[in-house]
Specification:
This protein is 37% helix and 14% strand. It contains 21 helices and 17 strands. Helix 2 links the parallel strand 1 and strand 2. The N and C termini lie far apart (72 Å). This is 2-succinyl-5-enolpyruvyl-6-hydroxy-3-cyclohexene-1-carboxylate synthase.
């Protein structure tokens, strides 16, 4: 290393090298001036093949792209490393999903990361936020593009450090790398099993550019560690596991699998002979104990009042009926939460919180009530018949068909193979998918923003999943979710490209509000209807075809299920947007009618099922 190189550039190169050694493979960069040292170092590292660099002009989209890359990378880790990853040199081993870094300049650029940071916080995704800043002498002086970035993300990050501007002193690279190691350990949750975002606020002084011609590969940095030392990030803390005595084997137990619950939820339900209520993004859908249309089946009082105990895994957020069940004072609730992570208990009714599933929980349940399971499964089969009949093949155009959005969700689910990934938007699409998933076979992997259940950044996150996962990826979004992050379609010709099909269910506004109390007020009077349409319905009238063309994305408008199935069977290259226009009027009446039909069918199916002996 030349002694005349700019200290900011030297420090940035050391940081980028260390990120690669500690397992970071993907870095998203939103260009700016103060972050120039990192930009140069990342460009050199990308040329050398030590990182994959992704450049985006919108920091909000960059944050969600990083989120998607991390989630997609976790899927790839589950399938084993790729050939290039397996052969590449690395320092510390990575446990679980690889962290992804995102780089911004100073000022409002940093604030634009906040939505993605909050989602990563609530879903435990390891993001490394590298935000450039002015040195301390320029803070609070009115200097351009300078604000207080220290602590900006508050409690949403697992670790935060304000790193002073390098000045070339002895040992400063060593100090920087030690801080980086702590940050990565916190991001991965290696000490507390609570992964999530971390924030390094990096001050840089001028000069912010290399003082010598650019290198074809990243230059060597003076080793801050003794030769031959094998560095690792902090080791995991030992966990005691769940105490098997914490659960009392009640016979009539349900398993509720929320977002991110994982396959253990399904395995537990099947081992114990318990019904399984699994959200689409739980990773636990399917299997013989899964209850279809469970949100409506819970409306069968003869069934729900029998429940004595619920085991909750993941983060259930989709269903008010599930939350009402979890809040019942006569129901014992056991929440399974990784050690160190906050547990999910919105009704504040959990009796027990355990940090893991004990092996004994997977032994056949001696006290399981087979009749209880049989009644739930009978209700499930009856509910599935109703949903199947209402969403089966129709010849009429989807723009006029009842339950059109459900039919679209079913077609998308059916086209998602077991090795595919489906990213589903919040609001109605994820709830529609919840109702139809499993009607046509075992689902593939479903990902959703359920940490905060927002619509923000879904296009960018889906693109990140497609880039990272190495699996066919599709997104199912509402029109407002798509338009909110339409900038996620923008990626330059020099950027890594991925194939992503985006199915947009366009009802020209926010139809989910019609299914809530606001829809009742809208239906009660003309004035209520006008108010609803203005402040909740929010029609936009956007023509998606020219919009997609402006971003260079493919576009198709389909009008019936046959056309939709054809588009799903042959996705175009790059970003392929498939628009399906469906009616918004009557959504509340449809939703209520379907719920009542399911409840009636499930109740009738349960009546003849007699209690079976306990096994």
């Amino acid at each position: 290393m030349s002694g005349t190189e700019a200290p900011a550039v030297t420090a940035a190169r050391a940081l980028v090298l260390e990120l690669g050694l500690q397992g970071v493979r993907d870095v998203v960069l939103a260009p700016g001036s103060r972050s120039a040292p990192l930009a140069y170092a990342l460009a050199e590292a990308a040329d050398a093949g030590t990182v994959r660099l992704h450049v985006r002009i919108d920091e909000r989209a960059a944050g969600f792209l990083a989120l998607g890359l991390a989630r997609g990378g976790a899927l790839r880790e589950d399938r084993g490393p790729s050939a290039d990853e397996a052969s590449s040199p690395a320092g510390a081993p990575v446990v679980g999903p690889r962290p992804v870094a995102v780089v911004t300049t100073s000022g409002t650029a940093v604030a634009n990361l906040h939505p993605a940071v909050l989602e990563a916080h609530h879903t435990g995704v390891p993001l490394v936020l590298l935000t450039a800043d002015r040195p301390h002498e320029l803070r609070g002086t009115g200097a351009s593009q300078t604000t207080d970035q220290v602590g900006l993300f508050g409690t949403a990050v697992r670790y935060a450090a304000d790193v002073p501007a390098p000045d070339g002193r002895d040992g400063e690279v060593r100090d920087l790398l030690a801080t980086t190691g702590r940050a990565l350990a916190a991001a991965l949750g290696l000490r507390d099993r609570n992964p999530g975002p971390v924030h390094l606020n990096l001050a840089y002084r001028d000069p912010l550019h290399p003082l010598h011609p650019l290198h074809p590969t990243i230059p060597a940095v003076a080793a801050p560690w003794p030769a031959g030392t094998r560095r690792t990030v902090a080791p995991p803390a030992p966990g005691p596991g769940a105490d098997p005595a914490l659960y009392g084997d009640p016979a009539r137990t349900l398993v509720v699998a929320g977002d991110g619950a994982g396959p253990a939820a399904r395995a537990l339900a099947e081992a114990q002979g318990w019904p399984l209520l699994a959200e689409p993004s739980s990773g636990a859908c399917g299997g013989p104990n899964a209850v279809r249309a469970y949100r409506s089946v819970l409306g069968v009082d003869e069934l729900s009042r029998e429940v004595e105990h619920v085991v909750v895994l993941g983060r259930p957020t989709l269903s008010r009926p599930v939350q009402r069940l979890l809040g019942r004072p006569d129901v014992a609730v056991t929440v399974v939460a990784p050690g160190g992570a906050p547990w999910t208990d919105a009704p504040r009714n959990a009796e027990r919180v355990v940090d893991a599933l004990h092996a004994r929980w997977f032994e056949p349940g001696a006290s399981a009530d087979r009749g209880f399971l049989d009644r739930w499964l009978a209700a499930s089969r009856a509910a599935a018949v109703v949903v199947d009949e209402e969403t089966s093949t129709r010849d009429i155009p989807l723009g006029a068909a009842p339950f059109a959005a459900l039919a679209v969700a079913r077609a998308v689910a059916a086209a998602t193979g077991p090795d595919d990934v489906l990213v589903v938007g919040s609001s109605n699409p994820v709830r529609d998918l919840d109702l139809v998933l499993g009607l046509d076979g075992e689902p593939g992997t479903v990902l959703a923003h359920r940490g905060l259940a927002g619509i923000d950044g879904t296009v960018s996150a889906a693109y990140g999943v497609a880039l990272a996962g190495g699996r066919r990826t599709r997104a199912l979004l509402g029109d407002l979710t798509f338009l909110h992050d339409v900038g996620g379609l923008l990626h330059g010709p020099l950027e890594p490209a991925a194939d992503l099909q985006v199915v947009v269910v366009n009802d020209d506004g926010g139809s989910i509000f019609a299914t809530l109390e606001h829809g009742e007020l809208a239906a009660a009077s003309d004035a209520g209807g006008r108010t609803f349409e203005r402040v909740f319905g929010t029609p936009h009238g956007v023509d998606l075809g020219p919009l997609c063309a402006g971003y260079g994305a493919g576009y198709r408008l389909v009008t019936d299920l046959a056309g939709l199935r054809a588009a799903l069977a042959a996705p175009g290259p790059g970003v392929d947007v498939v628009e399906v226009r469906v009616p918004r009027a009557g959504r509340l009446a449809e939703s209520r009618a379907l719920h009542q039909e399911i409840v009636a069918a499930a109740r009738a199916a349960v009546a003849p099922v007699q209690d079976a002996p306990s096994r």
